[in-house]
Amino acid sequence: xxxxxxxxxxxxxxxxxxxxxxxxxxxxxxxxxxxxxxxxxxxxxxxxxxxxxxxxxxxxxxxxxxxxxxxxxxxxxxxxxxxxxxxxxxxxxxxxxxxxxxxxxxxxxxxxxxxxxxxxxxxxxxxxxxxxxxxxxxxxxxxxxxxxxxxxxxxxxxxxxxxxxxxxxxxxxxxxxxxxxxxxxxxxxxxxxxxxxxxxxxxxxxxxxxxxxxxxxxxxxxxxxxxxxxxxxxxxxxxxxxxxxxxxxxxxxxxxxxxxxxxxxxxxxxxxxxxxxxxx
Length: 280
Description:
This protein is mostly helical. It contains 13 helices and no strands.
């Protein structure tokens, strides 16, 4: 099975979400995923991966003092993944972690109070924030970036070989941000042509479902069929599933800053092996 350090995740995904009780190669998992989920396959896979890691991580952070100490020292989450983690972790785990985080910030604030505070007026807010909480690196962001590369490369390979073309054409395809990322990953123009033509068909189907939704709404004869959630799925098509598009938006901000001759705001570094809970 391909996927490097994500091998265990693929196995658990097939077993728990796809009801596959035999060993499945990644290509077969992607084929089944494309036939199962009704919105962007890449977004859904990123969500499944983040949930898988956060679920295991919350147990370690509740029970393991060394893992708690590492978390507090590294400030290991961004705003997006903090709220994602909140949906997974128990209130007791969150309470314990934040009690220690509060103590750390109080210590750093007391250190600032001993120095010259007039310089703060001239500092960048990002620098002041770092003075308050320390250097941060979100391990879930790092894992997401690495996993997205794996998903895109596996999809690109299956589309180029033809093995995933029929499943992809029948599916909801990708959201536009992940479609752009996938197009950058494809090996040849023929595959890019197939992907764009298929995406036109998928968007046309979505537009047709929106027409049905509106007609049923206007006539007050809602049938709650395939078009019942068409507006929500259309939103996902445009911008990606909620909380799963950060890697793209970071790239977009880098492009815009480069295009305008400026430089993007500094962000936390991503570790090479961002999540240390991948126990095989």
